Amino acid sequence: MEKEKWQIPFDHPDAVSLLTQRLNELLAPHSHRPLLCLCIGTDRSSGDTLGPLVGTLLTEAPSPNIQICGTLAQPVHAFSLNQVVAEITQLPKTPLIIAIDASLGKQKEVGMVEVGEGALVPGKGVGKQLPAVGDIHIKGIVNAAGAMPSHILQTTRFHVTYEMAIKISRALLTVAATHSTPPI
After folding, report:
1. What are 22-76's pLDDT values in tens digits?
2. What is the CATH number of the domain that holds 101?
3. Which of 57, 68, 62 shows the shortest CA–CA distance to 34?
4. 1 pLDDT tier (thresholds 50, 70, 90)
5. How far apart are CA 162 and CA 78, in angstroms?
6. Is 112:141 a contact under the CB 8 Å cutoff?
7. Per UniProt, what is one GO molecular function of this protein (predicted)?
8. Rounded alpha-carbon distances, angstroms, from residue 115 to 9, 56, 162
9. 52 domain residue, yes or no
């Protein structure tokens, strides 16, 4: 039986506080582990910028309690993901990885932010075979899936992606402020 998805519309008036609450619930059993946000995507496609935008926003308001991999300047994408994951496994402390990525979904889910336990599989919606990553995942459903997924991501409204990134990064910064584990 599949777990019920926890989703919230990015434009919900209490999106940041509800995302923060959900993240705190998922992080509570892992308070001893340092946090690492693995922000996946590319700056070459408006719909796929969600992860790098979140990473960039997190670096602009740095927190000593959170490590960031993936920004607009240095994206983590299909060509670099395996190398970045290999580097993460070499860190002296095993971090709790929060994987963040854009996703295509059903029309009724467009604009939803999903937060849940377990890994996400980047590139799945565009037919790429990449490793599942993350202990916790955050997916922003930026557009509806269709026949040409790469084209759909390239023509996604940047406003949706940008607003999602703002809400997600604010929630992550709030969570990081109360996460007492020293950085990696």
Report:
1. 999 999 998 888 999 999 999 988 889 999 999 999 999 878 889 999 999 999 9
2. 3.40.50.1450
3. 68
4. very low
5. 21
6. yes
7. peptidase activity
8. 12, 20, 17
9. yes
